[in-house]
Specification:
The complex is a heterodimer of chains A (about 350) and B (about 500).
Chain A (H helix, E strand, L loop, with lengths): L1 H31 L7 H13 L9 H36 L11 H15 L10 H24 L5 H26 L3 H8 L7 H21 L1 H7 L3 H6 L4 H23 L5 H13 L3 H25 L8 H24 L1
Helix pairs in contact in A: 1-3, 1-13, 3-8, 3-11, 3-12, 3-13, 4-5, 4-6, 4-11, 5-6, 5-11, 8-11, 12-13, 13-14
Chain B lengths: L1 E12 L2 E12 L3 E5 L6 H8 L7 E6 L2 E2 L5 H7 E4 L11 H6 L15 H13 L15 H14 L4 E5 L7 H17 L3 E5 L3 H7 L2 E6 L2 E6 L1 H4 L2 H8 L3 E5 L6 E5 L12 H4 E5 L3 E14 L6 E12 L9 H11 L7 E6 L7 E6 L4 E8 L4 E2 L17 E7 L2 E2 L1 H21 L13 E2 L3 E6 L5 E2 L7 H28 L1
Helix pairs in contact in B: 4-5, 12-13
The chains are: A mainly alpha (about 350), B alpha/beta (about 500).
InterPro entries (chain A): ABC_BtuC-like (IPR037294), ABC_transptr_permease_BtuC (IPR000522)
Subcellular location (chain A): Cell membrane
Main location (chain A): membrane
Amino acid sequence: MLKRFIQKSFNNAAIYAVTVVVVIVSLLLGISIGSLSIPFSTIIDIFLYQWFGTPLNSDIPTNLVQIVMEIRLPRVVLAFLVGASLALAGAAFQGLLKNALADPYTLGVSSGASVGAVIVLFFGIQLPFVGTFTLPIVSILFGLCTLFLVLLFTRAVERKMSVETIILAGIMFGAFFSALISLMIALTGEELRQIITWLMGSVAMRGWNYTMMTLPFFLIGSLLLLWNSRELNAFAFGEATAAHIGVDVMRRKLVILTGASLLTGSAVAVSGTIGFVGLVIPHMIRLVCGPNHRLLLPLSLLYGGAFLVLADLAARTIISPRELPIGVITSLIGAPLFAVLFFKRMKRKT
Amino acid sequence: MNVLEVNNVSYRYHDKMVLQDVTFTVQKGELFGILGPNGSGKTTLLKLLSKELSLQTGMIFLNGKPLVSFSQKELARLVAVLPQSVDTTFGYTVKETVELGRYAHQGSLFPKWTEGDEQAVIKAIEQVELLDKMEEGIDQLSGGERQRAYLARALAQEPDILLLDEPTNHMDIAQQMKLLDRLSKWTKEKRLTVIAIFHDMNLASLYCDRILFLKQGSVIGVSEPNDMIEESTLRNVFGAPVRRQAHPVVPNPIVTFLPEMELPEREKELRDRLTIEKSHERIVVTTSQPFKVLSSSLVGAGFQWATHFVNRHVSKDYRCDDAEEEMKQYLRSHTLDVKRTIGMMTAVCLEDAAYVYRKEETFSLFTIVTAGIGNAVDAAKAWERDESAKGVGTINIIVFIDGTLMDAAYVQAMMTATEAKTKALYDERILDPKTNTMATGTSTDCIAIAASQMNTVFDYAGTITPLGKAIGRSVYEATREALRRYQQRRGDDQ
């Protein structure tokens, strides 16, 4: 018994150790590779210099410090936060809805949040008191509203809320909101190119502002979800079972949906719609570590972040010096996986 | 003490009344069964108890407190539920599944997994005997094992009350018995209260302390199985024809179902349904359809369905330690199915057997008697005799009846036949050679009452009833005739 317990803890510790290494390496890779290649050692030197005041190696030019600290690092951190948010939100949606095909993108939450973001960007709206946080807040609210619309609609169609119906409703609302965005773009005309890049998802040239803008929502959303990992496990056995073992179903459901929407909305606000991250990452982790949310949620967060850092790296190096939208990379990987999952699911049913 | 009190609960779903004015109480440590046909509101009632549905009218009290005053978590510490089916979930191990049961015992803000939690989980898994499958995926278990894993999860909640919705649904009969044995044991040992929906009336009758019958949302009755498992009640509640019987060991009734069958033999004369083969070694009556028999015979005693009736001749000095087994072997060697055969022995000459056929208005009767008085005995003085040697039966009576006999009729038919036999002995002036008083029978007599269980129904077969009269007359006549032939042959021999 004790042995098994230790074994289990050790396994978890080993899993986390590997994960942390993967995260650090992907972050370093993200900073290192680019039009100007920067070796890992230099990056670490720069960090030590910046954060701990150790003297900088004399061969490192000061503009390199600038590049690392003001261009590469914020981009990598933002990519990490966005990826972590989307993957964690995806894992939560999947657990709560008992639906392996659910993620912020397939549920239409991303599109809904985009509408909010586009409205803010193009009408230059600024809400009182919240200042620069207007963008993520509006995005989050739009995302949350979309989610409830999708769920209410699904429920109205079919009380048992089957997986396919939820996804269909999500795609339907997503299409509608995409059309709304296109309409807005067509009407404004001017900054067409920029908004299209944004729509396809990008973490380029956002600087620290954007990173700081999403950070509070990321922290709150992540904590809300990680705090509800036991409840998510219970929901995996159905809402009735969750209630039987003592879960306050309505409240917890609301908390989880809010947490996931916070993450999705704030991610969309700063990076546009990046699809399928929330689908790919939790699925891979489930394959390796099982469905227990106590492990699944933190790992989704960490690997989601690392994945998007690497996806961003690919996006800007494949056809360098030009950049691909990051959403192209994630969709290229995610859409086929979605197809496989969907195929397997329908096969199992027949 | 009442753990649960349900007062005037009604529930309406859209415009349909699912439950109407349901009132009952459950005591601590009871195994309480809820039975009723499909759509009678059983599951709705259980869902109201588990707060899965909210009360519309009426009150439910748990340990004296209104159910609504419990938070979901407080309730889960008191009541655990094992639903009929749980969504299958992929990838969770048995242990992870059972661990969920501890949810209600942990803090909300900073849940901490304590040694106590761990122990409760292991104990629960142990109780359902799944320790060896603890790390296996719940989706890899068989239906019965999965049900047990969910039961363990419910037990890990350490509840006072366990609510079960047809718990034995996915189990084979051995697993069902085992589960119910366990539940029954826990109600006694741990004072656990179990409230369960049952589908199988017999399981409910055997295991429940009390049973509640629901029909169209109303309570038909709540009481002990002995009071509730009544033919008329069951017919009223389920609308299915059943017959109540006594369980061989447990003092609770069991029911059997009466299927509607085509009985092509129904129209045939009793005589045409019987084939009789006579030889000096045995008389074999073969029936074209099984007869239900109550007999004291060597093979097939008690109640039995039979198609073959064998009266076998053995020599006067037949001795065997295990006569029954020897008889079975004899039957087998003559390709007779032992389970379908009534086997008797006699030392008298089979040619002296008497056959009497009677056709009455609503039934017919066929009686076969072989009689010898070598062991004639006066039952009233038998205690004065000291020998205990067991000879072979000397008066064997088989009565075939075309009719449906209730249990009482069988027993009365036995009595009537015995009385008629005794009277025949009396009128033939047969004496017990030891006591020199009138003999009432011989020491190893045998009687079989065989009824076709079709056509006219007979509740009784006492001497006042037409059936009793016919039995008495047939047996009397046949016995006298057989005795006369026996004595005649003895006279001839000497």
